[in-house]
Design goal:
- The chain is built from 6 helices and 4 strands, in the order αβααβααββα.
- By secondary structure, the chain is α+β, with helices and mostly antiparallel strands.
- The protein has one domain (about 5-150): CAP (Pathogenesis-related Protein p14a).
- The chain has a 4-stranded mixed beta sheet.
- Helix 1 (about 5-25) packs parallel to helix 4.
- The protein is globular, with a radius of gyration of 15 Å.
- It starts with 6 loop residues before the first helix and ends in a 6-residue tail after the last helix.
- It comes from Geospiza fortis.
- One of its GO terms (cellular component) is extracellular region.
- Its main location: Golgi.
């Protein structure tokens, strides 16, 4: 049956987020029970449908959301490192939204305070991971990216 995001898994994802956020000089995130619950529920839904798509909550802008799928049981570090690796596609000279960097910008968004993590396994052994962010980053209004996605400090 679907393994839920153990506290350990959620804390691992959080720790990697905060290590990366520190590099960018932005404050750490805290885990939030309510966001954990929502993320877990949604991860279980994804594991049932096996279609990786964003939730209506995130579409409505109620929360930021990162999703990950793998054919195996992914570790929290794996997932967060994969999201962060999009930094290579991000232009700090020309900031703004791109679907190729959305996971990365959500992770290091300065104004985000809290996160939740969910993980569920599908019957074929693949796993779905959901991270929820509050307040939601990746705002499409101009100016927000410059203030919220800061280049890594040397």
């Amino acid at each position: 049956m679907g393994k839920s995001a153990s506290k350990q898994f959620a804390e691992e994802v959080l720790k990697v987020h905060n290590d990366y956020r520190k590099k960018h000089g932005v404050p750490p995130l805290k885990l939030c029970k309510k966001l954990n619950r929502g993320a877990q529920q949604y991860a279980e839904e994804l594991a049932t449908t096996r279609v990786l798509k964003h939730s209506s909550e995130s579409a409505n802008g109620n929360c930021g959301e990162n999703l990950a799928w793998a054919s195996y049981d992914q570790s929290g570090k794996d997932v967060a490192d994969r999201w962060y690796s999009e930094i290579k596609n991000y232009s700090f000279q020309n900031p703004g939204f791109s679907s190729r960097t959305g996971h990365f910008t959500a992770m290091v968004w300065k104004n985000t305070k809290k996160m939740g993590v969910g993980k569920a396994s599908a019957s074929d052994g693949s796993t779905f991971v959901v991270a929820r962010y509050d307040p939601a980053g990746n705002v499409v209004n101009p100016g927000y990216y410059e203030e919220n996605v800061l280049p890594p400090r040397k």
